[in-house]
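Holo prediction — heme C.
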Amino acid sequence: MIKSTFFVVLSLLTLMIFSGCSQDSKSVNHLDGKALLQSKCASCHNLEMPPKTSADELAPPMMAVAFHVYDFIDMSTPAEKVPASIAFVRDYVVSPSQKKSFCDAKSLNEYGLMPSQKGNLTDDELEAIAIYMFEHYNQENFLDIMKQRRILRDMHSGERVARKYKCMSCHGIAKRKMGPSFSAIAERYKKDEVAIKKSIRLGSKDKWTASRHARMPAFKQLTNDELDTVSKWIKEQ
Ligand code: HEC
Ligand code: HEC
């Protein structure tokens, strides 16, 4: 009697700790959900965010699946949605059916029902995949990615080169770091783009006292186009 009460209390505790939230579930599943998703699901579902779609795709893109399941899952509070969505995926992947699918009849007709993946992956692997799906494909991450893209798109191509080669770890645009600021360099060389280019290609040392003998490494790996673009941009700062 005492034993079984203890058991009930323990199970309740475990439930309270491990239901609820995906972070907790993550700590009990150490498999790499991302890699598994790639190897077990990518043959049919496009995994990119935002997704790449095509007329002859075999299945809806994974982002669409995750958003769709999350939107359609019927839960009274938002906190219950992720665990319920994970549970849905865990069930659906091994026993899909027309009745369970949240896909509308037209899409189901076009794609055909998903073939059961039972036997292709273990329960633990499926759990890791399902957890990863809702950690990765969510509104917040999607908006972040779109924002990063917009920032990159609006960025001057010279600054894009500077970021690609991590120039900004030693240079600020207006602020000195280990190296002089790009505006100080522009000021010193005025219109002499050739001098700027040369230093980037060959490196530089002892031309800036504030840099205290620190050496600017030579950047041989920039293409000529990249060198032109980044030098023009520095000159304009
Ligand atoms: C052989 C191709 C194929 C593979 C492999 C595959 N799927 Fe699917 N999946 C589909 C198709 C087709 C649909 C759309 C029809 C449907 O809902 O059954 C679908 C639908 C789904 C849905 C239901 C979406 C909804 O709105 O109801 C989920 C969830 C899902 N897939 C998850 C996965 C996961 C996770 C994997 C990897 C473990 C996977 N699928 C592997 C073809 C595949
Ligand atoms: C590891 C740190 C570091 C990185 C990374 C770095 N720099 Fe520098 N850079 C310096 C330092 C230090 C100086 C000052 C050297 C000196 O005193 O001559 C400098 C100076 C320069 C100068 C002026 C040189 C001159 O002749 O006066 C230019 C132009 C420059 N860097 C451009 C770049 C660009 C473009 C990149 C990326 C492709 C880059 N740097 C990456 C440290 C760095």
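READOUT: DSSP finds twelve helices and two strands in the chain.
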